[in-house]
């Protein structure tokens, strides 16, 4: 039986690498995205992976999106909560919109997406939930009170979910990447990257999206059934917890 996976934000960056790795490993994959139709069309053409547009911050849209995926591909066994945004600013200048858009997309999405799939996973006695957090949720970052709060929230969510799912063969784990070369990081000032970020990374380089994808592949496998509630850091040694 082929397992079905949803990857939120699965058409670009880390999510795209995760979608591709899951497909290459034989899973049926649904790659969700928010609104960049061009990128999604390119991704679809390149990978032949089905794409689905909905906003992970919208509870009803998530329920409808999951229902559509399940109609097309079958019941969801694997959920990778990857979609995320930044809206940086010092707290003393941060707007309510900067705060709430990040909490909505990065944190509300965990409830919105996991709620419609968790009952089925419990009924079928198998499930894998992965949340892509961030090094900055573990150690904080200037200008990112909103983002750090949302990414630290991932860890509490997963620990509680792991306890609830353990007896039903459902695991929940966090991956906390450091700096990974995607558009999110490429958008940073290159001088800041070279002078302030790279010197902090013991391996001396940025991570690649495929390096995160390979960890996801392991954590969703049957071999990883005893790993739950954990946070796996993938950060080149930048921050060890
Ligand atoms: P990208 O900006 O490259 O891609 C983001 C993806 O998420 C896109 O597919 C985007 O869709 C989708 N997305 C954004 N908002 C929503 C929404 N409301 N509903 C549905 N989909 C949405 O991000 P990255 O690949 O860099 O980051 C992926 C995850 O990894 C994020 O959670 C991020 O916080 C985390 N992370 C990234 C790091 C990095 O260095 N890159 C480091 C640590 C953590 P669309 O294409 O339509 O815009």
Write up what this structure looks like.
The chain contains nine helices and seven strands; from the N terminus they run E-H-E-H-E-H-E-H-E-H-H-E-H-H-H-E. It is α/β, with parallel strands linked by helices and 241 residues long. The chain has one domain: NAD(P)-binding Rossmann-like Domain (Rossmann fold, 3-Layer(aba) Sandwich). Helix 1 links the parallel strand 1 (4-7) and strand 2. The chain is globular. NADPH dihydro-nicotinamide-adenine-dinucleotide phosphate (NDP) binds next to helix 1, strand 2 and helix 7. It holds the Pfam family adh_short_C2. It is an enzyme of class 1 (oxidoreductase). GO terms for molecular function: acetoacetyl-CoA reductase activity.
Topology:
Layout: E1 4-7, H1 13-24, E2 28-33, H2 37-47, E3 50-53, H3 59-73, E4 78-81, H4 96-124, E5 127-132, H5 135-139, H6 145-165, E6 170-177, H7 183-186, H8 190-197, H9 209-219, E7 231-234
Helix pairs in contact: 1-9, 3-4, 4-6
The chain binds NADPH dihydro-nicotinamide-adenine-dinucleotide phosphate (NDP).
Residues 8-9, 11-15, 32-36, 39, 55-57, 82-85, 105, 132, 134, 177, 179-180, 182-185 line the site of NADPH dihydro-nicotinamide-adenine-dinucleotide phosphate.
